[in-house]
């Protein structure tokens, strides 16, 4: 039996996949979206979106 641990540093390509997937699937389909990112869980995808990638976030410069 092989155990896969999801996580690690987010890559730019993963961010782009996440952005496109959220636009296509919506913000309530995290399990579906995470299936496109083999190394990320639904919880990680949701957190990445709401804490970093969501365009409505105001980032301090």
From TrEMBL:
One of its GO terms (cellular component) is Prp19 complex. It comes from the Eukaryota. Pfam families: Myb_DNA-binding (PF00249). Residues 2-53 form the Myb-like domain. InterPro entries: CDC5L/Cef1, Homeodomain-like_sf, Myb_dom, SANT/Myb. Transmembrane segments: none annotated. SUPFAM superfamilies: Homeodomain-like (SSF46689). Belongs to the CEF1 family. This is Cell division cycle 5-like protein. The lineage of its organism: Eukaryota, Viridiplantae, Streptophyta, Embryophyta, Tracheophyta.
